[in-house]
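residues and backbone:
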Amino acid sequence: MATKLPKPVMKGLWVKSYAYHMKVATVLTVASVGLYKAWEEYFFTSRWTAFEKTYDMEKDFQRKMKAGVFQCIDSNGVIRKDDD
C-alpha cells in the first residue's frame, strides 16, 4: 500500500520564508560589518600610525613651497604682495 503524501503547507509559508531570510540577512550584515571594521582597524590604523611616525611637516612644507604650490609664497620663500 502506498503512503499518503503530507498536505502542502500554504498558510504562513511566505511569512516563515521572509522571517528566515531576514535572519540570514541580519547575520550576514553583522558579520560583514564586523569583518570590515577589523580589516580597517588592522590595515588603515597601522598604516596611519607608521605614516605619522615618519612624517615631517616642515620638510613637506619646504617641498611644496619650492614646487610653487602656494600662491602667496614664491619658490624662494619670499611672501608675495598683491599688485592691486
